[in-house]
Write a structure and sequence with these properties.
single chain; about 325 residues; mainly alpha; MetI-like fold; about 0% strand; globular; BPD_transp_1_N; transport; MetI-like; ABC transporter permease; transmembrane helix
């Protein structure tokens, strides 16, 4: 309970500091949303009137207080450009972005875990070199270039095979699940292959370390083959590390898929954020950035808790240090 309490307190403190940082940094950027709304030929009086309507003439402390109060009550504000609720827009866009991230992570795990274990199990130096080369090449391919290659190979209309759509998302969303899923496969492959290469390297390193430990020797002394010992013992012992890697990979994909969304013309959070930044829509941008950063922090908290739950050594070290401190 002490560990959980400390982590929650740090999480809340980080959220407060994050909100201040996001608010201040956006106010430093040049541009004025009132001038954007009013147009290029607007008079100074018209711009001042719009600033008053949007609350931009208030002191910064008052603007920050109003924003935080709205966040506490679940109100992310209203877009200054479109006049729509930011919460509704984020919810609609998240229905594209987060399924894309989950699908990308599943592809990355399906690639990285088996290939990482295979690299540990093989005794053939040529195969080991091949696995090493695959990990380096796949991890070094830029997402935009990899996405273009997948479009040229598999997209309908311009691709060689013409299997999958390469642009857009169904207007009726997930009410047509198969069409929606098909539109996310190529973007998910673009992100998942690169992330899978990273997971493959981490898996090979973590399982390889465990494969040379005494636990492996004991497992093989009990009658297991080397393959059984690696898959049943070494992989299980490396699970806490791999959970941390998967959590960090998931967090990195939040920013990675934003680039991919623009390439495949998906109406996700990335396209929304880029548009709002270009329009200097401070109310929308500050809420979107805060939610994304808060998601990073929450994911880190969940990974930290999960890692501690899976690794009894962390609990034991906490008990020992608590007794020493007492």
């Amino acid at each position: 309970m002490r560990f959980v309490g400390k982590r929650l307190m740090l999480f809340v403190a980080a959220l407060i500091g994050l909100s201040v940082l996001v608010f201040v940094m956006l106010r430093v950027l040049p541009g004025d949303v009132a001038a954007v709304i009013a147009g290029t030929n607007a008079t100074p009086e018209r711009i001042a009137s719009l600033r008053a309507e949007l609350g931009l003439d208030k002191p910064l402390v008052a603007q920050y207080g109003d924003w935080i109060l709205g966040l506490v009550h679940g109100d992310l504000g209203v877009s200054a450009i479109g006049g729509k609720s930011v919460a509704q827009q984020v919810a609609a866009r998240a229905g594209v972005t987060f399924p894309l991230i989950v699908l990308s992570l599943l592809i990355a795990l399906a690639i990285g875990l088996p290939l990482g274990c295979a690299a540990v199990l093989t005794r053939n130096p040529h195969l080991r070199g091949l696995f090493h080369g695959i990990a380096i090449v796949a991890g070094a391919v830029p997402a935009l270039w990899g996405g273009l290659l997948l479009i040229l190979l598999f997209s309908r209309g311009s691709g060689l095979l013409g299997l999958l759509p390469a642009q857009g998302f169904p207007d009726d969303g997930w009410s047509a699940p198969m069409r929606a899923l098909a539109s996310l496969i190529l973007p998910a492959l673009t992100t998942g292959i690169t992330a899978g290469a990273s997971i493959m390297r981490y898996t090979r390193a973590a399982v390889g370390d465990m494969a040379s430990s005494q636990a492996m020797d004991m497992a093989m002394a009990c009658g297991m083959t080397r393959r059984q010992a690696v898959l049943r013992v070494a992989l299980r012992l490396a699970t806490p590390q791999l959970v941390s890697v998967a959590g960090l990979t998931f967090a990195q994909m939040v920013t990675g898929v934003m680039v991919v969304e623009n390439l495949f013309a998906l109406p996700g959070l990335g396209a929304m954020l880029v548009t709002d930044v270009g329009n200097r829509d401070l109310v929308a941008v500050q809420s979107e950035l805060f939610l994304l950063a808060a998601f990073f922090l929450l994911l880190g908290l969940v990974v930290d808790m999960t890692h501690r739950a899976l690794d009894p050594r962390l609990k034991a070290s906490g008990v020992v240090s608590g007794k020493v401190n007492a």
